[in-house]
Amino acid sequence: MIIRIDELSDVPIYMQIRNQIVMGISDGVLAGGDQLPTVRALALEMGINTMTVSKAYQLLKSEGYIMTDRKNGARVRTEIKKQGVLSDSNKTDLKRIVSEARISGVSKDELKALVDEFYGNDK
Amino acid sequence: MSDFYFGLIMFICVITMVLISFFTMYPRKWKEKKIILGVNFRPEFMVSENIEKVNSIVKNTNKNATIVSILCIVIACVLLALRGFKMQTFVWLGFLYLSIIALLVPYIIGHSQMMALKKELGLYSEKGVSYVDLNMVGKIKTMSLGKVLIPNIIGLVIWVFIFLCECKVINIDIDAGNGSFIGTIVVGIFWLTGLLLTFISFMMDNLKNEVISTDSDINANYNRAKKKNFADFNVRFLWINTLYILIIALSIVFMYSDVVLMIGVMVYIVPIMVICILSVSAAKKIEARYKNEMEFTLDDDENWIGGMFYYNPSDNRLNIEKRMGIGTTVNFAHPAGKVLGVFIAVCLVGALASVVWVGMLEATPINIRLEDKKVICHQLRDEYVIELDNIKDAEYKDDLDELKLVRVNGTGMSQLLKGNFTVDGQKKCKLFLAPKDNVYIKIATEEGTTYYISGIDKEETKEVYDEIVSEMK
Fold first, then answer.
1. A111 touching B, CB under 8 A?
2. CATH number of this structure's domain B367-472, picked from the four choices 2.60.40, 3.30.70, 1.10.10, 2.30.29
3. pTM
Protein backbone atom coordinates (compact mmCIF):
# COMPACT_ATOMS: atom_id res chain seq x y z
CA MET A 1 0.00 0.00 0.00
CA ILE A 2 1.35 3.39 -1.02
CA ILE A 3 1.05 6.34 1.36
CA ARG A 4 1.41 9.86 0.03
CA ILE A 5 2.55 12.50 2.50
CA ASP A 6 2.28 16.19 1.71
CA GLU A 7 4.13 18.30 4.22
CA LEU A 8 2.67 21.53 2.87
CA SER A 9 -0.95 20.33 3.18
CA ASP A 10 -3.32 21.86 5.75
CA VAL A 11 -4.02 18.35 7.03
CA PRO A 12 -1.51 17.35 9.73
CA ILE A 13 0.87 14.56 8.74
CA TYR A 14 -0.36 12.17 11.43
CA MET A 15 -3.90 12.67 10.11
CA GLN A 16 -2.76 12.03 6.52
CA ILE A 17 -1.22 8.72 7.65
CA ARG A 18 -4.35 7.83 9.63
CA ASN A 19 -6.69 8.70 6.74
CA GLN A 20 -4.76 6.71 4.16
CA ILE A 21 -4.54 3.64 6.38
CA VAL A 22 -8.30 3.84 6.97
CA MET A 23 -8.84 4.11 3.19
CA GLY A 24 -6.49 1.14 2.69
CA ILE A 25 -8.55 -0.93 5.13
CA SER A 26 -11.81 0.16 3.47
CA ASP A 27 -10.50 -0.66 -0.05
CA GLY A 28 -9.25 -4.04 1.11
CA VAL A 29 -5.62 -3.19 0.36
CA LEU A 30 -4.95 -3.77 4.04
CA ALA A 31 -6.66 -6.92 5.29
CA GLY A 32 -7.42 -7.91 8.87
CA GLY A 33 -4.28 -9.24 10.58
CA ASP A 34 -1.90 -7.41 8.20
CA GLN A 35 1.25 -6.24 9.90
CA LEU A 36 1.97 -2.51 9.86
CA PRO A 37 5.56 -1.21 9.99
CA THR A 38 7.02 -0.28 13.36
CA VAL A 39 6.76 3.37 14.38
CA ARG A 40 10.53 3.83 14.13
CA ALA A 41 10.88 2.15 10.72
CA LEU A 42 7.99 4.13 9.22
CA ALA A 43 9.28 7.43 10.64
CA LEU A 44 12.76 6.68 9.26
CA GLU A 45 11.37 5.81 5.86
CA MET A 46 9.20 8.93 5.71
CA GLY A 47 11.87 11.20 7.16
CA ILE A 48 9.50 12.44 9.86
CA ASN A 49 9.47 12.41 13.64
CA THR A 50 8.62 9.12 15.39
CA MET A 51 6.10 11.03 17.53
CA THR A 52 4.07 11.85 14.41
CA VAL A 53 3.77 8.20 13.38
CA SER A 54 3.12 7.21 16.98
CA LYS A 55 0.27 9.73 17.14
CA ALA A 56 -1.28 8.31 13.97
CA TYR A 57 -1.07 4.75 15.32
CA GLN A 58 -2.53 5.83 18.68
CA LEU A 59 -5.45 7.43 16.88
CA LEU A 60 -6.03 4.34 14.71
CA LYS A 61 -5.88 2.18 17.82
CA SER A 62 -8.32 4.34 19.75
CA GLU A 63 -10.71 4.27 16.79
CA GLY A 64 -10.52 0.48 16.72
CA TYR A 65 -8.84 0.04 13.32
CA ILE A 66 -5.58 -1.45 14.53
CA MET A 67 -4.26 -3.23 17.59
CA THR A 68 -0.78 -2.93 18.98
CA ASP A 69 1.29 -4.98 21.37
CA ARG A 70 4.95 -5.01 22.30
CA LYS A 71 5.64 -8.41 20.76
CA ASN A 72 3.85 -8.18 17.40
CA GLY A 73 3.86 -4.43 16.78
CA ALA A 74 0.84 -2.93 15.02
CA ARG A 75 -1.67 -5.04 13.09
CA VAL A 76 -4.96 -4.30 11.36
CA ARG A 77 -7.84 -5.62 13.48
CA THR A 78 -9.42 -8.78 12.07
CA GLU A 79 -12.83 -7.64 13.22
CA ILE A 80 -13.45 -3.93 13.15
CA LYS A 81 -16.43 -2.91 15.24
CA LYS A 82 -19.26 -1.89 12.90
CA GLN A 83 -21.14 0.92 14.61
CA GLY A 84 -23.52 1.47 11.71
CA VAL A 85 -23.52 5.24 12.19
CA LEU A 86 -21.43 8.05 10.78
CA SER A 87 -19.61 10.18 13.35
CA ASP A 88 -20.67 13.82 13.76
CA SER A 89 -17.40 15.14 12.38
CA ASN A 90 -17.72 12.89 9.29
CA LYS A 91 -21.32 14.08 8.83
CA THR A 92 -20.04 17.67 8.90
CA ASP A 93 -17.34 16.81 6.35
CA LEU A 94 -19.90 15.07 4.12
CA LYS A 95 -22.25 18.03 4.37
CA ARG A 96 -19.41 20.35 3.32
CA ILE A 97 -18.51 18.14 0.35
CA VAL A 98 -22.15 17.89 -0.80
CA SER A 99 -22.56 21.66 -0.44
CA GLU A 100 -19.43 22.36 -2.45
CA ALA A 101 -20.58 19.88 -5.12
CA ARG A 102 -24.00 21.59 -5.34
CA ILE A 103 -22.42 25.04 -5.66
CA SER A 104 -20.06 23.68 -8.33
CA GLY A 105 -23.01 22.32 -10.31
CA VAL A 106 -22.35 18.63 -9.70
CA SER A 107 -25.65 16.74 -10.02
CA LYS A 108 -27.03 14.46 -7.30
CA ASP A 109 -26.71 11.48 -9.65
CA GLU A 110 -23.05 12.24 -10.35
CA LEU A 111 -22.43 12.49 -6.61
CA LYS A 112 -24.29 9.22 -6.00
CA ALA A 113 -22.25 7.55 -8.74
CA LEU A 114 -19.08 8.72 -7.00
CA VAL A 115 -20.33 7.41 -3.66
CA ASP A 116 -21.13 4.07 -5.33
CA GLU A 117 -17.65 3.98 -6.84
CA PHE A 118 -15.91 4.75 -3.54
CA TYR A 119 -18.22 2.60 -1.41
CA GLY A 120 -18.18 -0.35 -3.78
CA ASN A 121 -21.30 -1.92 -5.23
CA ASP A 122 -20.78 -5.26 -3.53
CA LYS A 123 -20.89 -3.88 -0.02
CA MET B 1 61.43 5.57 -9.20
CA SER B 2 58.77 6.41 -6.58
CA ASP B 3 58.14 9.66 -8.53
CA PHE B 4 57.10 7.59 -11.52
CA TYR B 5 54.74 5.39 -9.49
CA PHE B 6 53.23 8.40 -7.73
CA GLY B 7 52.59 10.04 -11.11
CA LEU B 8 51.07 6.82 -12.41
CA ILE B 9 48.75 6.49 -9.40
CA MET B 10 47.53 10.06 -9.79
CA PHE B 11 47.15 9.53 -13.54
CA ILE B 12 44.97 6.42 -12.98
CA CYS B 13 42.89 8.31 -10.37
CA VAL B 14 42.31 11.31 -12.62
CA ILE B 15 41.53 9.27 -15.76
CA THR B 16 39.08 7.01 -13.91
CA MET B 17 37.46 10.00 -12.21
CA VAL B 18 37.07 11.75 -15.59
CA LEU B 19 35.63 8.65 -17.28
CA ILE B 20 33.22 7.81 -14.43
CA SER B 21 32.05 11.44 -14.23
CA PHE B 22 31.63 11.63 -17.99
CA PHE B 23 29.59 8.44 -18.26
CA THR B 24 27.46 8.90 -15.12
CA MET B 25 26.73 12.61 -15.21
CA TYR B 26 26.13 13.17 -18.89
CA PRO B 27 23.27 11.16 -20.46
CA ARG B 28 23.68 9.87 -24.00
CA LYS B 29 20.21 8.30 -24.37
CA TRP B 30 18.23 10.71 -22.19
CA LYS B 31 14.88 9.10 -23.05
CA GLU B 32 15.97 6.01 -21.09
CA LYS B 33 17.12 7.94 -18.02
CA LYS B 34 15.25 8.63 -14.82
CA ILE B 35 17.28 11.76 -14.14
CA ILE B 36 18.48 14.06 -16.93
CA LEU B 37 21.21 16.49 -15.84
CA GLY B 38 19.89 16.46 -12.27
CA VAL B 39 16.27 16.94 -13.36
CA ASN B 40 13.59 14.26 -13.16
CA PHE B 41 12.39 12.78 -16.42
CA ARG B 42 8.88 14.04 -17.13
CA PRO B 43 6.46 12.57 -19.73
CA GLU B 44 5.98 16.13 -21.01
CA PHE B 45 9.56 16.02 -22.35
CA MET B 46 8.40 13.40 -24.85
CA VAL B 47 5.89 15.73 -26.53
CA SER B 48 7.20 16.25 -30.08
CA GLU B 49 7.95 20.00 -29.77
CA ASN B 50 9.77 19.49 -26.45
CA ILE B 51 11.89 16.54 -27.59
CA GLU B 52 13.96 18.91 -29.74
CA LYS B 53 14.47 21.33 -26.83
CA VAL B 54 15.71 18.60 -24.48
CA ASN B 55 17.80 17.11 -27.30
CA SER B 56 19.47 20.43 -27.89
CA ILE B 57 20.31 20.98 -24.17
CA VAL B 58 21.63 17.43 -23.73
CA LYS B 59 23.62 17.55 -26.98
CA ASN B 60 25.29 20.88 -26.12
CA THR B 61 26.04 19.79 -22.57
CA ASN B 62 27.53 16.50 -23.76
CA LYS B 63 29.64 18.35 -26.33
CA ASN B 64 31.05 20.68 -23.65
CA ALA B 65 31.64 17.74 -21.29
CA THR B 66 33.48 15.85 -24.04
CA ILE B 67 35.77 18.83 -24.66
CA VAL B 68 36.51 19.22 -20.93
CA SER B 69 37.10 15.48 -20.50
CA ILE B 70 39.50 15.25 -23.46
CA LEU B 71 41.33 18.32 -22.18
CA CYS B 72 41.68 16.74 -18.72
CA ILE B 73 43.01 13.49 -20.20
CA VAL B 74 45.54 15.33 -22.40
CA ILE B 75 46.78 17.43 -19.46
CA ALA B 76 47.02 14.27 -17.30
CA CYS B 77 49.17 12.62 -20.01
CA VAL B 78 51.46 15.67 -20.07
CA LEU B 79 51.71 15.70 -16.25
CA LEU B 80 52.98 12.10 -16.34
CA ALA B 81 56.34 13.56 -17.37
CA LEU B 82 56.59 15.56 -14.11
CA ARG B 83 59.33 14.60 -11.66
CA GLY B 84 60.02 15.64 -8.08
CA PHE B 85 57.71 14.31 -5.39
CA LYS B 86 56.74 17.68 -3.87
CA MET B 87 56.21 19.30 -7.24
CA GLN B 88 54.11 16.31 -8.36
CA THR B 89 51.96 16.46 -5.21
CA PHE B 90 51.41 20.16 -5.72
CA VAL B 91 50.57 20.00 -9.42
CA TRP B 92 48.55 16.75 -9.38
CA LEU B 93 46.40 17.76 -6.42
CA GLY B 94 45.77 21.17 -7.92
CA PHE B 95 44.91 19.53 -11.23
CA LEU B 96 42.61 16.99 -9.55
CA TYR B 97 40.66 19.82 -7.90
CA LEU B 98 40.51 21.83 -11.10
CA SER B 99 39.42 18.86 -13.21
CA ILE B 100 36.59 18.03 -10.76
CA ILE B 101 35.38 21.64 -10.93
CA ALA B 102 35.82 21.78 -14.71
CA LEU B 103 33.80 18.57 -15.17
CA LEU B 104 30.97 20.00 -13.07
CA VAL B 105 30.67 23.23 -15.06
CA PRO B 106 28.87 21.77 -18.14
CA TYR B 107 26.61 19.79 -15.76
CA ILE B 108 25.60 22.86 -13.78
CA ILE B 109 24.94 24.85 -16.96
CA GLY B 110 22.93 21.95 -18.44
CA HIS B 111 21.00 21.57 -15.19
CA SER B 112 20.04 25.25 -15.06
CA GLN B 113 18.88 25.03 -18.71
CA MET B 114 16.74 21.98 -17.92
CA MET B 115 15.22 23.75 -14.90
CA ALA B 116 14.46 26.76 -17.11
CA LEU B 117 12.81 24.43 -19.64
CA LYS B 118 10.65 22.90 -16.88
CA LYS B 119 9.57 26.37 -15.86
CA GLU B 120 8.81 27.27 -19.47
CA LEU B 121 6.65 24.15 -19.79
CA GLY B 122 4.86 24.97 -16.53
CA LEU B 123 6.21 21.90 -14.73
CA TYR B 124 6.77 22.24 -11.03
CA SER B 125 8.21 19.97 -8.36
CA GLU B 126 5.97 18.32 -5.80
CA LYS B 127 7.57 20.21 -2.96
CA GLY B 128 7.02 18.54 0.41
CA VAL B 129 5.50 15.40 -1.10
CA SER B 130 6.85 11.92 -0.42
CA TYR B 131 5.62 8.39 -1.08
CA VAL B 132 6.08 5.34 1.10
CA ASP B 133 5.18 1.76 0.28
CA LEU B 134 4.03 0.21 3.57
CA ASN B 135 4.87 -3.28 2.33
CA MET B 136 8.57 -2.37 1.98
CA VAL B 137 9.22 -0.45 5.18
CA GLY B 138 12.14 -2.05 7.02
CA LYS B 139 11.97 -5.19 4.87
CA ILE B 140 14.40 -4.59 2.00
CA LYS B 141 17.77 -5.59 3.41
CA THR B 142 20.68 -7.04 1.49
CA MET B 143 23.55 -6.61 3.97
CA SER B 144 24.32 -9.06 6.73
CA LEU B 145 27.04 -9.15 9.34
CA GLY B 146 28.34 -12.43 7.89
CA LYS B 147 29.40 -10.69 4.68
CA VAL B 148 31.63 -8.18 6.43
CA LEU B 149 32.77 -10.01 9.54
CA ILE B 150 35.53 -12.17 8.01
CA PRO B 151 37.46 -9.39 6.18
CA ASN B 152 37.26 -7.20 9.30
CA ILE B 153 38.55 -9.99 11.53
CA ILE B 154 41.42 -10.77 9.11
CA GLY B 155 42.37 -7.07 9.09
CA LEU B 156 42.25 -6.92 12.88
CA VAL B 157 44.43 -10.04 13.23
CA ILE B 158 47.05 -8.55 10.89
CA TRP B 159 46.99 -5.26 12.77
CA VAL B 160 47.47 -6.96 16.14
CA PHE B 161 50.25 -9.12 14.65
CA ILE B 162 52.17 -6.08 13.34
CA PHE B 163 51.66 -4.27 16.65
CA LEU B 164 53.00 -7.23 18.63
CA CYS B 165 55.99 -7.50 16.27
CA GLU B 166 56.76 -3.80 16.74
CA CYS B 167 56.42 -4.17 20.52
CA LYS B 168 58.92 -7.07 20.31
CA VAL B 169 56.36 -9.44 21.86
CA ILE B 170 56.66 -11.54 18.69
CA ASN B 171 60.33 -11.95 17.81
CA ILE B 172 60.35 -11.05 14.11
CA ASP B 173 62.64 -8.39 12.67
CA ILE B 174 60.53 -5.65 11.14
CA ASP B 175 61.99 -4.05 8.04
CA ALA B 176 60.19 -0.73 8.56
CA GLY B 177 62.32 0.99 11.17
CA ASN B 178 62.43 -0.21 14.74
CA GLY B 179 60.46 1.71 17.32
CA SER B 180 58.75 3.95 14.77
CA PHE B 181 55.44 1.96 14.88
CA ILE B 182 54.92 2.93 11.27
CA GLY B 183 53.48 -0.52 10.52
CA THR B 184 50.92 -0.27 13.31
CA ILE B 185 49.91 3.20 12.14
CA VAL B 186 49.59 2.34 8.43
CA VAL B 187 47.83 -1.01 8.93
CA GLY B 188 45.62 0.59 11.61
CA ILE B 189 44.53 3.35 9.25
CA PHE B 190 43.47 0.83 6.61
CA TRP B 191 41.74 -1.44 9.11
CA LEU B 192 39.77 1.55 10.39
CA THR B 193 38.94 2.39 6.77
CA GLY B 194 37.45 -1.11 6.49
CA LEU B 195 35.46 -0.55 9.66
CA LEU B 196 34.15 2.75 8.32
CA LEU B 197 33.21 0.99 5.10
CA THR B 198 31.27 -1.60 7.10
CA PHE B 199 29.37 1.17 8.84
CA ILE B 200 28.65 2.91 5.52
CA SER B 201 27.45 -0.34 3.93
CA PHE B 202 24.82 -0.80 6.65
CA MET B 203 23.86 2.85 6.39
CA MET B 204 23.34 2.43 2.64
CA ASP B 205 21.26 -0.68 3.28
CA ASN B 206 18.92 1.42 5.43
CA LEU B 207 18.30 4.04 2.77
CA LYS B 208 14.71 5.06 2.08
CA ASN B 209 13.05 2.76 -0.45
CA GLU B 210 11.97 4.45 -3.62
CA VAL B 211 8.37 4.09 -4.79
CA ILE B 212 8.17 3.78 -8.57
CA SER B 213 4.96 1.78 -9.03
CA THR B 214 1.63 1.06 -7.38
CA ASP B 215 2.69 -2.60 -7.45
CA SER B 216 4.57 -3.35 -4.23
CA ASP B 217 6.38 -6.31 -5.81
CA ILE B 218 7.93 -4.07 -8.47
CA ASN B 219 8.94 -1.55 -5.82
CA ALA B 220 10.46 -4.28 -3.68
CA ASN B 221 12.40 -5.86 -6.57
CA TYR B 222 13.68 -2.50 -7.79
CA ASN B 223 14.91 -1.43 -4.36
CA ARG B 224 16.35 -4.87 -3.59
CA ALA B 225 18.32 -4.80 -6.86
CA LYS B 226 19.69 -1.34 -6.08
CA LYS B 227 20.61 -2.19 -2.49
CA LYS B 228 22.26 -5.43 -3.58
CA ASN B 229 24.40 -3.42 -5.98
CA PHE B 230 25.42 -1.09 -3.10
CA ALA B 231 26.13 -4.07 -0.85
CA ASP B 232 28.19 -5.88 -3.52
CA PHE B 233 30.25 -2.74 -4.06
CA ASN B 234 30.94 -2.28 -0.36
CA VAL B 235 31.78 -5.94 0.29
CA ARG B 236 34.16 -6.05 -2.71
CA PHE B 237 35.75 -2.80 -1.53
CA LEU B 238 36.16 -4.28 1.95
CA TRP B 239 37.89 -7.41 0.60
CA ILE B 240 40.25 -5.29 -1.54
CA ASN B 241 41.02 -3.21 1.55
CA THR B 242 41.78 -6.37 3.56
CA LEU B 243 43.98 -7.72 0.77
CA TYR B 244 45.85 -4.43 0.74
CA ILE B 245 46.32 -4.62 4.53
CA LEU B 246 47.93 -8.04 3.97
CA ILE B 247 50.20 -6.67 1.21
CA ILE B 248 51.41 -3.70 3.26
CA ALA B 249 51.89 -5.90 6.32
CA LEU B 250 54.12 -8.22 4.27
CA SER B 251 56.05 -5.29 2.81
CA ILE B 252 56.51 -3.77 6.28
CA VAL B 253 57.86 -7.06 7.64
CA PHE B 254 60.01 -8.16 4.69
CA MET B 255 60.86 -5.35 2.26
CA TYR B 256 59.83 -1.88 3.33
CA SER B 257 60.51 0.82 0.75
CA ASP B 258 58.73 3.76 -0.84
CA VAL B 259 58.60 1.98 -4.21
CA VAL B 260 56.97 -1.14 -2.73
CA LEU B 261 54.41 1.03 -0.93
CA MET B 262 53.66 2.96 -4.14
CA ILE B 263 53.18 -0.29 -6.08
CA GLY B 264 50.92 -1.45 -3.23
CA VAL B 265 48.81 1.72 -3.54
CA MET B 266 48.49 1.08 -7.27
CA VAL B 267 47.42 -2.51 -6.63
CA TYR B 268 44.86 -1.03 -4.21
CA ILE B 269 43.52 1.70 -6.47
CA VAL B 270 43.16 -0.21 -9.75
CA PRO B 271 40.70 -2.88 -8.43
CA ILE B 272 38.73 -0.16 -6.61
CA MET B 273 38.37 1.74 -9.86
CA VAL B 274 37.28 -1.51 -11.57
CA ILE B 275 34.57 -2.23 -8.97
CA CYS B 276 33.42 1.41 -9.23
CA ILE B 277 32.95 0.95 -12.98
CA LEU B 278 31.18 -2.40 -12.47
CA SER B 279 28.78 -0.95 -9.91
CA VAL B 280 27.99 2.14 -11.97
CA SER B 281 27.32 -0.09 -14.96
CA ALA B 282 25.07 -2.39 -12.85
CA ALA B 283 23.18 0.67 -11.53
CA LYS B 284 22.58 1.83 -15.11
CA LYS B 285 21.27 -1.61 -16.08
CA ILE B 286 18.84 -1.59 -13.13
CA GLU B 287 17.51 1.84 -14.11
CA ALA B 288 17.10 0.73 -17.74
CA ARG B 289 15.36 -2.51 -16.68
CA TYR B 290 12.77 -0.69 -14.52
CA LYS B 291 12.34 2.40 -16.71
CA ASN B 292 9.11 1.04 -18.24
CA GLU B 293 7.72 -0.01 -14.86
CA MET B 294 7.96 3.52 -13.47
CA GLU B 295 4.39 4.67 -13.10
CA PHE B 296 5.36 7.73 -11.13
CA THR B 297 8.51 9.29 -9.86
CA LEU B 298 8.72 11.85 -7.14
CA ASP B 299 9.76 15.16 -8.61
CA ASP B 300 11.81 16.79 -5.86
CA ASP B 301 14.19 18.71 -8.15
CA GLU B 302 13.87 21.85 -6.07
CA ASN B 303 15.46 20.07 -3.12
CA TRP B 304 18.62 19.46 -5.16
CA ILE B 305 20.91 22.50 -5.42
CA GLY B 306 22.57 22.41 -8.83
CA GLY B 307 21.11 18.92 -9.27
CA MET B 308 23.79 17.59 -6.91
CA PHE B 309 23.45 18.80 -3.32
CA TYR B 310 20.37 17.71 -1.38
CA TYR B 311 18.93 20.45 0.83
CA ASN B 312 15.54 19.74 2.35
CA PRO B 313 14.83 21.18 5.82
CA SER B 314 11.55 19.20 6.02
CA ASP B 315 13.38 15.89 5.68
CA ASN B 316 14.69 14.42 8.93
CA ARG B 317 16.95 11.95 7.16
CA LEU B 318 20.68 12.60 6.98
CA ASN B 319 21.59 9.94 4.48
CA ILE B 320 20.11 10.26 0.99
CA GLU B 321 20.66 8.27 -2.19
CA LYS B 322 22.75 10.13 -4.74
CA ARG B 323 21.19 11.35 -7.96
CA MET B 324 24.14 10.41 -10.14
CA GLY B 325 26.54 7.51 -9.84
CA ILE B 326 26.07 5.17 -6.92
CA GLY B 327 26.21 5.69 -3.19
CA THR B 328 24.80 8.20 -0.82
CA THR B 329 24.99 11.89 -0.08
CA VAL B 330 23.88 13.90 2.92
CA ASN B 331 20.98 16.23 3.49
CA PHE B 332 22.79 19.54 3.95
CA ALA B 333 19.75 21.00 5.71
CA HIS B 334 20.12 18.42 8.51
CA PRO B 335 22.16 19.78 11.50
CA ALA B 336 24.72 16.98 11.11
CA GLY B 337 24.73 17.61 7.35
CA LYS B 338 25.59 21.27 7.97
CA VAL B 339 28.47 20.30 10.25
CA LEU B 340 29.66 17.76 7.70
CA GLY B 341 29.39 20.34 4.91
CA VAL B 342 31.54 22.83 6.84
CA PHE B 343 34.01 20.05 7.70
CA ILE B 344 34.31 18.98 4.04
CA ALA B 345 34.75 22.60 2.94
CA VAL B 346 37.46 23.16 5.57
CA CYS B 347 39.22 19.93 4.53
CA LEU B 348 39.14 20.89 0.84
CA VAL B 349 40.36 24.42 1.45
CA GLY B 350 42.90 23.18 4.03
CA ALA B 351 44.30 20.55 1.66
CA LEU B 352 44.60 23.13 -1.10
CA ALA B 353 46.13 25.72 1.24
CA SER B 354 48.67 23.21 2.57
CA VAL B 355 49.65 22.21 -0.96
CA VAL B 356 50.04 25.89 -1.88
CA TRP B 357 52.09 26.46 1.29
CA VAL B 358 54.38 23.51 0.54
CA GLY B 359 54.76 24.81 -3.02
CA MET B 360 55.73 28.24 -1.68
CA LEU B 361 58.22 26.69 0.72
CA GLU B 362 59.74 24.77 -2.15
CA ALA B 363 59.82 27.72 -4.52
CA THR B 364 61.13 30.39 -2.11
CA PRO B 365 64.92 30.27 -1.65
CA ILE B 366 66.29 30.56 1.88
CA ASN B 367 68.52 33.48 2.64
CA ILE B 368 71.15 34.12 5.30
CA ARG B 369 73.01 37.40 5.71
CA LEU B 370 74.96 39.45 8.18
CA GLU B 371 73.38 42.80 9.00
CA ASP B 372 73.94 45.24 11.92
CA LYS B 373 76.02 42.67 13.80
CA LYS B 374 73.27 40.12 13.51
CA VAL B 375 73.03 36.88 11.50
CA ILE B 376 69.61 36.93 9.87
CA CYS B 377 68.07 33.78 8.40
CA HIS B 378 64.97 34.52 6.36
CA GLN B 379 62.40 32.60 4.30
CA LEU B 380 58.74 33.53 3.83
CA ARG B 381 57.40 34.45 7.29
CA ASP B 382 60.19 32.77 9.24
CA GLU B 383 63.16 34.73 10.51
CA TYR B 384 65.90 33.62 12.89
CA VAL B 385 68.08 36.41 14.31
CA ILE B 386 71.35 35.57 16.05
CA GLU B 387 73.22 38.46 17.70
CA LEU B 388 76.97 38.32 17.03
CA ASP B 389 77.61 39.06 20.72
CA ASN B 390 75.60 35.99 21.57
CA ILE B 391 77.73 33.64 19.42
CA LYS B 392 80.12 31.47 21.41
CA ASP B 393 81.55 29.52 18.50
CA ALA B 394 81.00 29.18 14.74
CA GLU B 395 82.17 26.32 12.54
CA TYR B 396 81.91 25.68 8.79
CA LYS B 397 81.21 21.98 8.17
CA ASP B 398 80.43 19.64 5.29
CA ASP B 399 79.19 16.49 7.03
CA LEU B 400 75.45 17.11 7.16
CA ASP B 401 74.62 13.61 5.89
CA GLU B 402 76.45 12.11 8.87
CA LEU B 403 74.25 13.88 11.44
CA LYS B 404 71.24 12.13 12.91
CA LEU B 405 68.46 14.67 12.63
CA VAL B 406 65.08 14.18 14.30
CA ARG B 407 62.45 16.85 13.69
CA VAL B 408 60.62 18.14 16.77
CA ASN B 409 58.60 20.71 14.85
CA GLY B 410 58.98 22.69 11.66
CA THR B 411 59.66 21.71 8.06
CA GLY B 412 61.44 18.50 7.09
CA MET B 413 61.60 18.46 3.29
CA SER B 414 64.29 16.95 1.09
CA GLN B 415 65.49 20.41 0.06
CA LEU B 416 64.63 22.34 3.25
CA LEU B 417 65.14 21.69 6.95
CA LYS B 418 63.70 24.39 9.14
CA GLY B 419 62.60 24.45 12.78
CA ASN B 420 63.46 22.70 16.04
CA PHE B 421 65.38 19.43 15.75
CA THR B 422 67.48 17.11 17.88
CA VAL B 423 70.90 16.62 16.30
CA ASP B 424 72.79 13.47 17.29
CA GLY B 425 70.63 13.34 20.41
CA GLN B 426 71.38 16.97 21.37
CA LYS B 427 68.28 19.05 22.12
CA LYS B 428 67.78 22.84 21.64
CA CYS B 429 68.96 22.82 18.05
CA LYS B 430 67.48 25.10 15.42
CA LEU B 431 67.96 24.25 11.76
CA PHE B 432 67.67 26.61 8.84
CA LEU B 433 69.35 25.02 5.87
CA ALA B 434 69.19 23.66 2.35
CA PRO B 435 70.72 20.19 2.68
CA LYS B 436 71.56 19.61 -0.98
CA ASP B 437 75.24 20.74 -0.74
CA ASN B 438 75.84 19.00 2.56
CA VAL B 439 77.49 22.13 4.02
CA TYR B 440 76.37 24.20 6.99
CA ILE B 441 77.50 26.66 9.63
CA LYS B 442 77.19 25.38 13.16
CA ILE B 443 76.69 28.27 15.59
CA ALA B 444 76.76 27.65 19.33
CA THR B 445 75.26 30.52 21.35
CA GLU B 446 75.80 31.71 24.89
CA GLU B 447 72.19 30.92 25.82
CA GLY B 448 72.67 27.24 24.86
CA THR B 449 70.86 27.04 21.52
CA THR B 450 72.81 25.57 18.62
CA TYR B 451 71.99 26.79 15.11
CA TYR B 452 72.67 24.82 11.94
CA ILE B 453 72.29 27.21 9.04
CA SER B 454 73.18 27.41 5.38
CA GLY B 455 72.59 29.67 2.41
CA ILE B 456 71.01 28.69 -0.85
CA ASP B 457 74.31 27.17 -2.03
CA LYS B 458 77.85 26.33 -0.90
CA GLU B 459 79.26 29.74 -1.97
CA GLU B 460 76.69 31.77 -0.04
CA THR B 461 77.21 29.63 3.05
CA LYS B 462 81.01 30.04 2.89
CA GLU B 463 80.70 33.78 2.26
CA VAL B 464 78.45 34.34 5.30
CA TYR B 465 80.71 32.13 7.43
CA ASP B 466 83.76 34.21 6.47
CA GLU B 467 81.88 37.40 7.32
CA ILE B 468 80.86 36.02 10.72
CA VAL B 469 84.43 34.96 11.51
CA SER B 470 85.88 38.34 10.48
CA GLU B 471 83.25 40.24 12.47
CA MET B 472 83.87 38.09 15.53
CA LYS B 473 87.57 38.94 15.41
1. no
2. 2.30.29
3. 0.73
